[in-house]
Amino acid sequence: MSAPAGLLFLLLASSLPPAASAAPAPPLVEAKRLNSRVFKLLQAGRHAEAARLAVRSLNILEKNLGVNHPRVATALNTLASIRQAQGKFVEAVGLFRRALAIRKKALGPEHPDVATILNNLGGAFQTRGTLKVAESMFRRALAIREKALGPRHTDVALSLKNLAEIHRLQKRYSLSEPLLRRALDIFEKNLGPGHPRVLNNLNKLIIDFQMQGKIAASEPLFRRKLSIIRKSIGTGHLEMSKTLNNLALVVRARGDMAAAEKMLRASVAIIKKNLGPNHLRIALTLTNLAEVYWAQGLTKKAEPIYLYALRVREKNLGPLSSQVLLSLNNLGALYLKTKQYEKAASTLTRILGIQIKTIGPNHSRIATSLGNLGELYLRKGELVKSEAYQRRALRIREKAFDPEHLKVAKSLYDLARVQTFQVEPSKFAESEKLLHRALRIRRKKLGNKHLRVAQTLEFLSLLYRISDRTKTGAKYLQQAKAIRKELKRGKNK
């Protein structure tokens, strides 16, 4: 009986001599295809699908190459990175450790590929908040890379940056700064001044300076960044807008309002050109511009800009957003400052309404809005209304905070102020009690030589003088004057 045609073909084929260079085995080709698909899925953010394919690729490689093959280590590293992105920390660490052991055995403990796994493992511990372990991993990776690749290699800069980040997370800015400077120098020389990694490092250095209170020292870095952006990606890029905005805050801090205004207006123009006049991003820059005007006393210029920022936030986020509240707070403060009391009342009432809807009527933040309304009606001379708002604020704060919290002290003080200005003998006893409570809390929390202590003593003095206890009033006034004198002397040193 003759063999079927298909079988005959296979038999004949098997009898042929092997080709000089055989093609890769089909399973390994499949593994390679799967791996390529994995990276495409990761780019699309489809981690679950990527994980399934990565597992299939790993199984193929283990079956065909053995569990200790370097390609298996690479597959383990890929799968570990996916698990980390999925928040599966324990599984990710286990996979990274397996990959590390394979590479150490296959390549030796000082190979750069070993450093890559150590770096990734350190990153996993960093995301978990286990910073000491992460630091140890990053240091080992850095030592290997410096030895194997030389001190000026880009991978060395990556390790420096990672180690700096650990210090930054622990607020050890004096330790992170030199590492970032060194990484910046390597990136700039190897990748060019306009590379994203150069800009990223500059940003981190700037943050380090600002977190250390070195605001002035950050200005040259901002200007350096501006120069890089101009040369590499152009003056109309959104990164230019962001940098101008941030630099404006620095120059404003040193009092150069004209320069700050110019930078902020340029930033606004770039945002409008790229994103349109109503993009959410413009609101923050507009707010900063308004504050520059306000700092110069130019409130008539500030008001329409605050209103513009408010409209943008309302349009993009809705009327109940926290950013809308920020804009309303800015406007409310401006209206109080400029004695536009009707506008202030409308704005502050709206703020209160939004807060009641979003966080409930008894939240501690409600007390702040009630206090602001109380202050408004005090200034308007509507003392009964003012007292009602301040009492509500006090009740909320006494429930929300410890009895000796500074915010409780503020409400005690504010309520007593309203009652003092009412000049009603029936309320003197309560006002006295409130002010003494506020004084006791402020002394305990702030010390005896604080401005708020002096202010409380001054109102006690006023209360005693109004109620014909002039001797006691004079005593408290002298205490207040002594504190202010000492504070002024300390300020002038």
Helices and strands, with pairings:
Blueprint: H1 5-14, H2 26-43, H3 47-65, H4 70-85, H5 89-107, H6 112-128, H7 131-149, H8 154-169, H9 173-191, H10 196-211, H11 215-232, H12 238-253, H13 257-275, H14 281-295, H15 299-317, H16 322-337, H17 341-359, H18 364-380, H19 383-400, H20 406-422, H21 425-446, H22 451-466, H23 470-492
Helix pairs in contact: 2-3, 3-4, 4-5, 5-6, 6-7, 7-8, 8-9, 9-10, 10-11, 11-12, 12-13, 13-14, 14-15, 15-16, 16-17, 17-18, 18-19, 19-20, 20-21, 20-22, 21-22, 22-23
Beta-strand share of residues: under 5%
Total number of strands: 0
Q: What is the string of SSEs from the N terminus onward?
A: HHHHHHHHHHHHHHHHHHHHHHH
Helix/strand class: mainly alpha
CA distance, first residue to last residue? 114 Å
Query: How many DSSP H or I helices?
Result: 23
Percentage of residues assigned to helices: over 70%
- Describe the sheet with the most strands: none
For CATH, the homologous superfamily of the domain at 25-149 is named as Tetratricopeptide repeat domain
Evaluate the radius of gyration. 33 Å
